[in-house]
Amino acid sequence: MPVTQFNVIDPYKYINGFGGHKESEAIEGALPLAANSPQKCPYGLYNEKLSGSAFTAPRNENQQTWLYRILPSASHQSFESVPDHVNQSLIHSKSSGSQFTVIPNQLLWAPFDFDSGSSWVDSLHLIAGAGDPTLKQGIGYYVYALGRSMDEKSAFYSADGDFLIIPQHGTLDIRTELGKMLVRPSEFCVIPRGIRYHVALHDSEPARGYILELYQGHFQLPELGPIGSNGLANARDFQTPVADFIEDYENTEWSLYGKFGGNLFSAKQSHTPFDVVAWHGTYYPYKYDLGRFCPLNAVSHDHIDPSIFTVLTAPSIPHGPGTAVADFVCFGPRWNVSENTFRPPWYHRNTMSEFMGLIKGNYPGDFRAGGANLHNTMSGHGVDTQTFEKASGMDLVPTKLMQGSLSFMFESCLMVGVTEWGLKTVASKVHQFGAIVDLVADM
């Protein structure tokens, strides 16, 4: 069965499908009829527009959602900068060019440590990236490792970009303004820029994973071209939460944390930020089970480019057609049947940079689940000597690859730099014919 089997049952309801207009209401009749901003909203709610694109963006690219909530999101006290000693990890992940060291060496990270004392906001560590969120250009690659849920009356959002969150260990119970999602290992979710959310652990189990923050544009499904109308990640398999709200019956104190220009700010408010009773539009969080991905491959000869494993893409128009500021690629179980072919990936120098992580499974060498590696722009990489020799002489029978394994790649047209924290945590620098095996070279 291609769908991932999970140990944790998801109790929440979802709306199926990727992109397009969706609507949801927690109370019947909460959505106004035939108007977005009536003089009086049903149930005395406030209407609020959440814009993820310019008002004048083309219709097929315009992302906006109307929220109908108990109180406006603007009703909070002033934001104050969080002192450095409270959150070193996020404060020091300011994503300007000066924060990154750009080097051509291939880098390998061992599995990142858990931090039993950290909640979601404290656990975010920028490991690598490029660009500047204040200019809405580029990307940031994070790892998180938390040991406790966020405080009950707290919420977080990023004004810098969309968060693509990939759990590697432990389940995330996420309440967003638009509804709740349970995100388990082998799933991922996307929380768009500006949407507020709370992250709790499931059964108090520590959690670890990866994040791609997209500073420019939004993710979309890749075009299928000659593949046709189906395959890869099918739109019907994406899930969007349904409306769910908290109603405060008396004044309470909530802490709202905002990531803004790579810095962390906080503000107090006397009511819950999770008071959206109904919503409709095209701008919302969603999740996807990577076990539903329908892989394609060669059925005659030659190893195909890894672009055939693209789940989501964020095009970079200035860099030319077919080029992405970020591609999210996954490698899961599949058959390899190519004849007269060196089956692992060929040795390669790529104009794109490749950051890879292992969600589950084992690989030769020191690459382990919970770790990562980086092959930067034009840095040569490929399989080690032992794998090369084995692949050159093996009997080319049909082979099932990656059984029990799941890995991913963030590919970008940008030259990716590494933060000071990322360099401190590097396990080793590796070179061609070194200790590391190309991530998709599962023999």
Automatic annotation (TrEMBL):
Protein name per its UniProtKB record: homogentisate 1,2-dioxygenase
Residues the record lists as binding Fe cation: H348, E354, H381
Gene source species: Aspergillus tanneri
Enzyme class: oxidoreductase
Residues forming the catalytic site: H303
Highest taxon above the source species: Eukaryota
NCBIfam families in the cross-refs: hmgA
Domain (Homogentisate 1,2-dioxygenase C-terminal) ranges: 292-425
Signal peptide location: none
Cofactor list: Fe cation
UniProt: homogentisate binding residues: Y363, H381
Molecular function terms, GO-annotated: homogentisate 1,2-dioxygenase activity; metal ion binding
One GO CC term, this protein: cytoplasm
Record-level GO BP terms: L-phenylalanine catabolic process; L-tyrosine catabolic process
Family label: Belongs to the homogentisate dioxygenase family.
Keywords: Dioxygenase, Iron, Metal-binding, Oxidoreductase, Phenylalanine catabolism, Tyrosine catabolism
Pathway the protein contributes to: Amino-acid degradation; L-phenylalanine degradation; acetoacetate and fumarate from L-phenylalanine: step 4/6
Keyword set includes Transmembrane helix: no
UniProt cross-references to CDD domains, sorted A to Z: cupin_HGO_N
EC numbers: 1.13.11.5
Boundaries of every Homogentisate 1,2-dioxygenase N-terminal domain copy: 13-290
